[in-house]
Design brief:
about 240 residues; Alpha-Beta Plaits; nine-stranded mixed sheet; 8 helices; 9 strands; globular
């Protein structure tokens, strides 16, 4: 059987098979989702953290320098995510995606985003500029953005045996990814109205002055749909 026939058979099996779906109470892993037709429905918060202008970074600097900057950003971001209870499920170049579940998932994710902002501004950027002189001399500014949305998603495995990964299908992962692409002045965190409406006070107001940390609501078109968004310039110590 040739490659075309193999592909035709495989695609037919995918589109003609029923999902073996279940409801999940914890963030799925590749070990807990069957490759053939397994699916897990989750109610979760998706967080995407994206390093800004990685195209310019790769274009204007040596690959070894660009790689150090991206690794430093991802390393720091992942440590904050894990400390805040998030489960990291994918990387896409200079971007990382995490899933939060549980009763405080919205608050934990929003708190995580503000802590990522502090870490990038106060640790990653100064350390990179102090040790990679070309970053500062060429005027490259290390910035990022975090997007967060909450909702249900269907988690499946995409790919072939031995070469596959988890794929999340739903509004929340799609919107969160698009929000992380926003570049607007000093704003570094964007959350949807669905997330904001479920935040505990500690994630809405600053300590100890109880000042609002989020601006909004605003309407924004994301993926052809108008959604409610809140944004923030605030930072929080990890």
């Amino acid at each position: 059987m040739g490659l075309a026939e193999d592909i035709e058979k495989a695609v037919a099996e995918v589109v003609c098979s029923d999902w073996d779906a279940r409801t999940g109470n914890v963030v799925p892993t590749t070990d807990t989702v069957k490759l053939s037709n397994g699916a897990v429905e989750i109610d979760a918060v998706y967080l995407y953290a994206d390093l800004a202008d990685s195209t310019g970074l790769a274009r204007d600097f040596a690959r070894t320098t660009a790689a150090k900057v991206i690794r430093a950003y991802l390393d720091a971001t992942c440590r904050v995510i894990r400390a805040c209870g998030g489960e990291i499920r994918s990387f896409d170049g200079d971007r990382v995606m995490a899933i939060f579940m549980g009763g405080s998932k919205n608050t934990n994710a929003a708190d995580c985003a503000l802590k990522i902002h502090r870490v990038v501004e106060d640790i990653v950027r100064p350390k990179v500029e102090a040790n990679l002189s070309s970053i500062k001399t060429k005027g490259f500014e290390i910035k990022h953005c975090v997007g967060i949305d909450s909702g249900t998603a269907l988690v499946v495995r995409g790919g072939v045996r031995g070469h596959n990964d988890l794929v999340s299908i739903g509004r929340a992962p799609n919107v969160a990814a698009k929000l992380s692409d926003i570049r607007d002045g000093s704003y570094r965190t964007y959350i949807t109205g669905a997330v904001f409406g479920r935040l505990a006070e500690r994630a809405k107001l600053s300590n100890p002055n109880k000042q609002p940390m989020w601006e909004g609501p605003y309407n924004r078109v994301v993926g052809g749909q108008t959604i409610t968004v809140y944004k923030s310039t605030w930072r929080r110590s990890p």
